[in-house]
Amino acid sequence: MKKRRDPSPEFDLFLPIMGDLPLKDQRETMERPFFSLQKRKRVKPIEYTSPDGATWVKIEAIPAYGMATIWDADIIIWATSALNRMREQGVNDLPRTLTTTSYDLLRAIKRNTSGRAYQDLQAALQRLQTTSISTSIRAPKRRSKAGFNWLDKWTLEVDPDTDQPRGMTITLSDWVYEGIMAERSLLTMHPDYFLLTGGLERALYRIARKHAGNQRGGWTCRVEVLRDKTGSDSKPKEFNRMLRKIVETNQLPDYAVEMVATNDGSPAIQFRLRGEAEALALSEQLQAEQDRRDRMEADRRRTTEVDDLMDRLSGRS
Fold this sequence. Notes:
- It is a single chain.
- With 317 residues, the protein is α+β, with helices and mostly antiparallel strands.
- Among the domains are: 18-195, no CATH class; 277-316.
- 41% of the residues lie in helices and 19% in strands.
- The protein has nine helices and twelve strands.
- The strands form four sheets. Strands 2-3-5-6 form a four-stranded antiparallel beta sheet, with no helix packed on it. The chain has a three-stranded antiparallel beta sheet with strand order 4-8-7.
- A hairpin with a 5-residue loop joins strand 11 and strand 12.
- The longest helix is centred in the C-terminal third of the chain and has 43 residues, at 274-316.
């Protein structure tokens, strides 16, 4: 792959497209509702408190731009993955400001590169810079909180002759950058994550990746808790309908999803690694077949016993 020279004097290292990078995301943001799940403008705040009351998040938007969406978050995932690669390569003094081109960034996050795509990219950068986040996550004391935006600043360079986009920079906020740099703070995501078209599907995958991980037996979550974790503003009935549709199609990367019930009968979703889920399904099929054969054999024995008894009774008469 031909490397392009970084126009920024601050950081002279070409950032590879995402196809060359393991996809990484931050654990802390994956299980909580930091982003809007809808593409239409959302200005209604997201307010979330964990079931134990220990963690809370509040997301607010400027009406002119709306709240950062879960699709906008692809830019943060790209930056996280790029910085992680640099760290693995032994690069010192990892920068908060990353330089690339609009074209390469769009390709990296699996978007088209039409003229409209560049307009959408600029709108996403504006939302990431203006969305306000307050949270107790990483607060040193229980009653303290942190406030930040996803990006401190960004630039888009435009060719003066063709008016076409060229280079661009994004500067991560301190909170985002520190989260990436923290030890064991990142999780690897499936490369097909960017191909998920629905906001709820994306949120469910991130939650499953954080909680289910690679553990045997998977992870089960009540539907009402799952709705809070996604930050969906849909009514419960509509949320349940969308959830059932996702369960029916069952196309999340890495995880099979199934509607189940908890011990008290509450509706819940079980996330299980696909390899394990397929093995379990095969095992259940084999067990069902064995049970069928056992029943047939039991029926045959009972029939034989009845026939023998009838023969003996006939012999006495």
